[in-house]
């Protein structure tokens, strides 16, 4: 085992490489990566070996669902393969993290469509870089009644939402979007003027 | 180094895990970038949206450093998000400013015209003619102002209906003569005359687009004008079709 490196005078190169890789993960810097690696090294049998095995398995089996773009371990993800889920509603999200957030909430029992990003003038992301053509094809072939645009309330998110709504206009499908306004537990005094304005515009009978 | 200014936020991009680099179009310091510490946090990120009016304090040890911004939100202009045409206008304005203006070069006149235009977008008033005038001013600020006051051939101020694609000067019907087919049509809206039809707006955008393409061409390395401007033109055309 070769030695030497930035993380300690005699740190073996293999461990140093592991620390460097861990430090690339979100939320971890070099110091916290070193701590994490130390924990793994101390619990080699109980934690490190199973973790390495699980990572190796997922690295081989993980793939994008060819219907919705969700990440799974087969060509069609568990959600798309689930016959109990409603087929007439497609919820459009920006990325898999948003899909997971909605699944955690357990409030939607239809199907999803993951765009893989949003239109962005800054990053030169156009419609062809996203899975918008796939969405239009799905809507046409899956007897869809409603497309729910669950995109971020940001300039890029809403630009994308308006673009998709236009692209789907010819299909005749109902296009809806998530409401914007006061969050559960929110206090008006602390809300920004944009959220307050959106909430007031979207007020409903009480 | 330290200064304080007010302006419209043009862009935000993540910087590391918790910070953001923003660009603000300010009155006295032009298009200026800086780091916002905690700019990617849940508390601050919603306030840093393109189009937002902000007051910024910029600090750096040396003038040529990127520097740190402290941001005080003044007005979110969030109503824009629900209006597809206004949102397209906002995207076009931000993209054009980012592409056309060098960093840290003051353009107080353009800044003074941009803020009311953003306000008009949010208010939902008939802003496309104002956007056209803004593009004319942008051309002027980058050194290619169109001369639409008199005919380049006869010197007349009447019946100006063409623009020379080379000089950017207006040409009257009489002055155009046999060259009319080689000239660009000049819609009255660019002269500030009468109400603007959708066709006039489209024609005027084609005219400003011609000169913007030509003047910004070297900066674009053969690429077209920003996609955001194209989407605005498409949306205006669709609105005109009903």
From TrEMBL, chain A:
<dbReference type="GO" id="GO:0006310">
    <property type="term" value="P:DNA recombination"/>
</dbReference>
<dbReference type="GO" id="GO:0003677">
    <property type="term" value="F:DNA binding"/>
</dbReference>
<keyword id="KW-0233">DNA recombination</keyword>
<dbReference type="InterPro" id="IPR006171">
    <property type="entry name" value="TOPRIM_dom"/>
</dbReference>
<keyword id="KW-0863">Zinc-finger</keyword>
<feature type="zinc finger region" description="C4-type">
    <location>
        <begin position="65"/>
        <end position="80"/>
    </location>
</feature>
<keyword id="KW-0234">DNA repair</keyword>
<dbReference type="InterPro" id="IPR000093">
    <property type="entry name" value="DNA_Rcmb_RecR"/>
</dbReference>
<dbReference type="GO" id="GO:0008270">
    <property type="term" value="F:zinc ion binding"/>
</dbReference>
<dbReference type="InterPro" id="IPR023627">
    <property type="entry name" value="Rcmb_RecR"/>
</dbReference>
<protein>
    <recommendedName>
        <fullName>Recombination protein RecR</fullName>
    </recommendedName>
</protein>
<dbReference type="InterPro" id="IPR015967">
    <property type="entry name" value="Rcmb_RecR_Znf"/>
</dbReference>
<keyword id="KW-0227">DNA damage</keyword>
<dbReference type="InterPro" id="IPR034137">
    <property type="entry name" value="TOPRIM_RecR"/>
</dbReference>
<dbReference type="Pfam" id="PF21175">
    <property type="entry name" value="RecR_C"/>
</dbReference>
<keyword id="KW-0862">Zinc</keyword>
<feature type="domain" description="Toprim">
    <location>
        <begin position="88"/>
        <end position="183"/>
    </location>
</feature>
<comment type="similarity">
    <text>Belongs to the RecR family.</text>
</comment>
<dbReference type="Pfam" id="PF02132">
    <property type="entry name" value="RecR_ZnF"/>
</dbReference>
<comment type="function">
    <text>May play a role in DNA repair. It seems to be involved in an RecBC-independent recombinational process of DNA repair. It may act with RecF and RecO.</text>
</comment>
<dbReference type="Pfam" id="PF21176">
    <property type="entry name" value="RecR_HhH"/>
</dbReference>
<keyword id="KW-0479">Metal-binding</keyword>
Automatic annotation (TrEMBL), chain B:
<protein>
    <recommendedName>
        <fullName>DNA repair protein RecO</fullName>
    </recommendedName>
</protein>
<dbReference type="InterPro" id="IPR012340">
    <property type="entry name" value="NA-bd_OB-fold"/>
</dbReference>
<dbReference type="InterPro" id="IPR022572">
    <property type="entry name" value="DNA_rep/recomb_RecO_N"/>
</dbReference>
<dbReference type="Pfam" id="PF11967">
    <property type="entry name" value="RecO_N"/>
</dbReference>
<dbReference type="GO" id="GO:0043590">
    <property type="term" value="C:bacterial nucleoid"/>
</dbReference>
<feature type="domain" description="DNA replication/recombination mediator RecO N-terminal">
    <location>
        <begin position="1"/>
        <end position="73"/>
    </location>
</feature>
<dbReference type="Pfam" id="PF02565">
    <property type="entry name" value="RecO_C"/>
</dbReference>
<dbReference type="GO" id="GO:0006310">
    <property type="term" value="P:DNA recombination"/>
</dbReference>
<keyword id="KW-0234">DNA repair</keyword>
<comment type="similarity">
    <text>Belongs to the RecO family.</text>
</comment>
<keyword id="KW-0233">DNA recombination</keyword>
<dbReference type="InterPro" id="IPR003717">
    <property type="entry name" value="RecO"/>
</dbReference>
<dbReference type="InterPro" id="IPR037278">
    <property type="entry name" value="ARFGAP/RecO"/>
</dbReference>
<dbReference type="GO" id="GO:0006302">
    <property type="term" value="P:double-strand break repair"/>
</dbReference>
<keyword id="KW-0227">DNA damage</keyword>
<dbReference type="InterPro" id="IPR042242">
    <property type="entry name" value="RecO_C"/>
</dbReference>
<comment type="function">
    <text>Involved in DNA repair and RecF pathway recombination.</text>
</comment>
